[in-house]
Automatic annotation (TrEMBL):
One matching Pfam family: Gtr1_RagA
Database matches in Gene3D superfamilies: 3.30.450.190, P-loop containing nucleotide triphosphate hydrolases
Protein name (database record): GTP-binding protein
Coiled coil: none
An example molecular function term from Gene Ontology annotations: GTPase activity
Length: 315
């Protein structure tokens, strides 16, 4: 299953691919050369969560016949719009052309728009971000209506300088795997059976989450959970033996104290991480009272692990 990154030159496509999947630091992306031919990167940390990102040169145009083979393989097309210098009208025209050609070949493609680089002085507050987001949405809807094309598009405000890019890519990857629905149910049941406040299943290498429970994602929860993964990776790289960095026993607990009062335990939150499959970890936020029943939590996590194995075996 392929995810295509398309859009104008210098809009940030290669930076996105490198920052999320190759651990390039956002500042170093400044020196990336222009992409001259399509660059393919396959993410295959877990054998059941494999997908390919194809990074196209700027302003790639699609043709239903010439690009048939590519489009048949495509699960999602991400159009990257540079919110700092991009022209909305011109971009929407190009996106409409891409959708017109792609939808002739493959009706199942998801269309995703990143309103990208919303991190500069131009976008200091949320109102300014929402304005460009809404303008783009309105313009592309009009373009598609005029052309009589009926597809759904999802929009995201993104930047490589914060977690928004990971959040957006997580949501797109989730759309490509039907088993994610079962995972969400399992995570919801962790919430109901043991009071887990929020739970994510992460790919530890890319730090994108392939599932979370149905409660809304608070970006600070995502940030704190993904930083816990960094801690685990750093620790196991330093102290892990013989390249055996992660195994079934890998787990981490961090207690976050809420108030300054050392005696007041009631408001504490625990961050709890446990491996659930190859390179997949469950990270949960759990309240003080619920964490006292750790045996119940572990029991339910083991059930989740077993179900996950069964789901993967059936695939
Ligand atoms: N401020 C800001 N700059 C970004 C962001 N993402 C990418 N950039 C910058 O945008 C410039 C172009 O990035 P590239 O990733 O090379 O763009 P591209 O779309 O791959 O360009 P082509 O390969 O020529 O089509 C670089 O200087 C990046 O550092 C972002 O989220 N915020
Ligand atoms: Mg590029």
């Amino acid at each position: 299953m392929d995810i295509l990154l398309v859009g104008p030159s210098k809009s940030g496509k290669t930076s996105i691919q490198r920052v999320v999947f190759k651990k390039l630091s956002p500042h170093e992306s400044f020196f990336l050369p222009p992409t001259m031919s399509v660059e393919t990167l396959t993410v295959e940390n877990n054998p059941n969560v494999q997908f390919t990102i194809k990074d196209f040169p700027g302003n790639k145009e699609f043709d239903a016949e010439a690009d048939r083979a590519i489009l048949e393989q495509t699960g999602a097309i991400i159009y990257v719009f540079d919110a700092q210098i991009g022209d909305i009208e011109e971009s929407c025209g190009k996106l409409k052309d891409i959708i017109a050609e792609a939808s002739k070949v493959n009706e199942k493609i998801y269309y995703e728009v990143f309103v990208h680089k919303v991190d500069s002085d131009l976008y200091q507050n949320d109102d300014q971000k929402m304005e460009v987001y809404n303008d783009f949405q309105r313009e592309i809807r009009n373009e598609l209506k005029e052309a009589d094309i009926n597809v759904n598009i999802t929009f995201y405000l993104t930047s490589i300088y914060d977690h928004t890019i990971f959040d957006a890519l997580s949501k797109i990857v989730q759309k490509l795997f039907p088993f994610v629905e079962h995972l969400i149910e399992m995570l919801n049941s962790l919430h109901t059976s043991c009071g887990v406040e929020k739970a994510f299943i992460f790919d530890i290498i890319s730090k994108i989450f392939i599932a979370t429970d149905s409660s809304p994602v608070d970006i600070t929860h995502y940030e704190i959970c993904s930083e816990l993964i960094d801690v685990l990776i750093d620790m196991s790289c330093i102290y892990g033996k013989d390249n055996l960095k992660f195994d079934e026993e890998s787990s981490t607990t961090i207690k976050l104290k809420k108030g300054d009062n050392a005696d007041d335990e009631a408001g504490n939150t625990y961050l709890y991480l446990k491996e659930v499959d190859e390179y997949l970890v469950l990270v949960c936020l759990i309240g003080e009272e619920e964490f006292q029943k750790k045996h119940l939590i572990n029991y339910n996590i083991n059930l989740l692990k077993q179900s996950l194995k069964e789901i993967f075996a059936k695939k």
